[in-house]
Predict the structure.
Amino acid sequence: MNYPQSAYLHIPFCHRRCFYCDFPVVPLGDSARGDHGPGSNSIKSYLDMLFRDISLTPKGLPLATIYIGGGTPSLLSPSQVANLLDHLRSHFGFQYGAEITLEIDPASFDKVSLEGFLDAGINRLSLGAQSFDDVVLNELGRRHSSRDLLEACDLIQDSFKRGRLFSWSLDLIKNLPCQNLVSWKRQLLKAISISPPHLSIYDLSIEKGTVFAWKMSRGELSLPNHDLSFDISRITSQMLKEAGFARYEISNYALPGHASRHNRVYWSGASWWGFGQGATACPWGKRFSRPRTRDLYKEWLVKQELALQRNSLDSIEKVQAIPFEDLLIVGLRRREGVNIKDLSRVLGWDNNQLRLNINLLKMFWEYPLEKGWIKQNGWRFYLTDPEGMEISNQILVQMLRWCEALNCSSSD
Ligand code: SF4
């Protein structure tokens, strides 16, 4: 049995909820902190639950990647992060050189707390920048200003240069309301001038129940149209390529040696542990999520503890194998694409079926293949950059139609 070698820990607390966000977060107010003051009791009792959650898990292989995400995990104090890592280390052990990432937001840490996080063992940071423009930050409902962001970048870049960090990433959002090519280029140039070794650039997506969804329903959001959004993506790929970044996944760019090892685990279909409210885990290729609310998570923990006493973890009994189409979707986002032969093992196709099914897939993908938006190399298919990656949604939809035609869903 191959035990996971990666772990995701979810810290659901934020100062406040941003206007586009539908994550399972608990807004604690602008002055919340983990060690004392507003919100600290809530954070402490949550960490106790997280420790219990970790203890419930079978001990397996030492971890190679750990990702503390949220939420705003930098609301935790350095000693809370150290405790969390100690707990994880004593349960699983860490491999030499393990990548340990902390998501961090501007205006939620200073020089002292940053040093504390690094002393605790964090060696990679992911900074939620989103934009360098104060008007945009305000429209997104973010708490930080561009000045906070630049200060955060300075502190992090200084730690990176001193060798205290293996790497760090800066996150931006594109396709925002009223964004145009000129304003987006300005954002990118600013990001490039700061020289983070990794950039994640996500498209804004409008999620149900958010302020943005409400504004959208009232016609108050003017989002870039298809052509502008295509131009924004094209220019992003081009400018970052010229700056030395490789696009190793649709939304992720890295300088050589700085691709996120943890994220590659998700995209490769490998297993990982997941801990905390709303966290998704995928041990042994079987995926399940913990409850998204605090009360339900608490109940779930009690149930699991009782089940453990009976020697049967309920969660493991009820989980689903990752569907074949999901493996294809995440795999095709990567620069190296997907090896259909490898993935189809879960479906038990023999070589003859594989050949017939791939011929059918090529009929669904006839146009993008002819245009050179998808390339084939043996059993492997991959999207070209930027053309294929820019129209990835259409290509994925055609692929899902193929799955539907084959009725291919993986069995447990
Ligand atoms: S800081 Fe991040 S997780 Fe928290 S509300 Fe904003 S977008 Fe969501």
Q: What stands out?
A: The pocket of iron/sulfur cluster is lined by residues 14, 17-18, 21, 23, 25, 70-72, 105, 128 (CB under 6 Å). The longest helix spans residues 40-56. The radius of gyration is 22 Å.
